[in-house]
Amino acid sequence: MTLIPAQVMFWLCLSLMMVHELDATWHKEWRLLPGLSSLPDRWGRIVFVLAHIPIFWWVLYQVGQDVSVASTMTNTMTSPSTFRIGFDVFAIAHLGAHYLLRKHPAIAMTGWDSWLLIVGAALAGLADLWLLW
Predict the structure, then answer these.
(1) Please, which residues have CB within 8 angstroms of residue 4's CB and are 6 or more apart in sequence?
(2) pLDDT tens column, 54-102
(3) Among 91, 78, 62, 94, which Cα is nearest to 132's?
């Protein structure tokens, strides 16, 4: 399978978002989330991490569906799926949420490395959308 530029941007967006979730665990992002913020840190981390198992499963399943459908049709993943477009839009909105909440006392992701992941995912998602049209 030959990758096209839009695919590279989508995979970069997905990769950066997944690594961001690792970073979010490191920075105790559950302290910002309703319900989890009231838990002791140990339990907040456990619930936060375990909640990502079905989330990652669903995301990877959707990506796998896109690849299998596309490979039976054209041998490349050229037509954008609703999931792919939605994920790109989510990455952009996610940047907006982090920007709006950047001064919240529970936010510990203030370093350039955390912002590189968040902004990078949004820019890769935007580039994927732009290259698709």
Answers:
(1) 76, 78, 131
(2) 999 999 999 988 765 555 545 444 467 899 999 999 999 999 999 999 9
(3) 78
The candidate with the shortest Cα–Cα distance to 28, out of 1, 12, 47, 56, is: 47
pTM: 0.86
Measured between its terminal Cα atoms, the distance across the chain in Å is: 21
Query: What amino acid occupies position 128?
Result: D
Q: Which secondary structure element, helix H or strand E, spans residue 84, and what is its range?
A: helix 82-100
Find, among 28, 30, 29, 49, the residue nearest to 38 by Cα. Answer: 30
Contact 107, 101 (CB under 8 A): yes
- Could you tell me the residue ranges of all domains in the chain? 5-132
Taking each helix axis from N to C terminus, what angle separates 5-26 and 112-132, rounded to the nearest 10 degrees?
A: 150
Q: State the DSSP code for 31.
A: G
Cα–Cα distance, 40 to 31 (Å, whole number): 9
Classify residue 81 by its DSSP letter.
P
- Give the single-character DSSP code of 40: -
CA 117 to chain centre: 9
